[in-house]
Amino acid sequence: MVIAVTGASGQLGHLIIDKLIERGAAPADIVGIARTVEKAADLAARGIEIRQADYSDAATLPAALAGVDRLVLVSGSEIGQRAAQHHNIIEAAKAAGVGFIAYTSLLNADKSTLGLAEEHRATEAELATAGIPFAVLRNGWYTENYTAGLEPALASGALYGAAGEGRIATATRADYAEAAAAIALSAEAESGSILELGGDEPHTLAELARVVSEVSGTAVAYENLTPRACATHKWPPGCPRAGRSSPRPPIVASPGETSTPTRAHSRPSSAARRRPSLTPSARHSASSTRAPRSPRPHKGWGLLACAGLARPKNS
Question: Who's near 242: CB < 8 A, 6+ residues apart?
Fold first, then answer.
């Protein structure tokens, strides 16, 4: 069985390939698809075939998907172009006889009001009529969206946002990659499965600030702004502003709103590390599950692993 992963040179795609190998897939059975093959040289050195393709160049896709049995379609990063790009890949997958597609979408994409959701909805709708068995992995917010911006918070002593008491169930990229690898390898993944993925412990930004303080030893307080103030706030150097295209926008939930997987299942961590639950309820479009749990050295949502902060002596 040949499994292809698009975006192989990107952060999530690379991690998915790592997780496939950890779960027993032979490197010779994995194809990494990248726009720039040189950026995936480390994967090629491990015995993975790297094929060049560009989401926007339909002519490059047939050769990239030749002989592929199962495809992990990591959503593109070019906002405004992704629906057309994903269409190209789905069409090429149909022509190549790909037997299964796992697509990385957005949490609650069917009802999300985020501007990012529309292209995901369009891709999910196309998959539903493509005639290829598929699963949708609706990834929640990355923990790294916060940890990558902790330096300014530690320097200023303030973590800014306009989330109020909204709760966010973040998970690391590695968690989401684990889920994608498990689905790609699973013979039980039923066509049309929609999995809402997120972390185990939903948290507010105030709670996040407290954990940052505990782990780093530097006092950091959450400062809740109004959406208008957040959009016009003078952010410290290196801190992403609201209102511009950024992978780490500070506004992630309105007061009282949540960014949490719905109807998420609780499972022992050992089972979660083996593969996501594919119980009967997880085979319906309204179903959900959590990303497999990675070891968390502190209760703070992978902060130590993501941000490189020192581990407290008592943890």
Answer: 162, 227, 230, 231, 233, 249, 250, 251
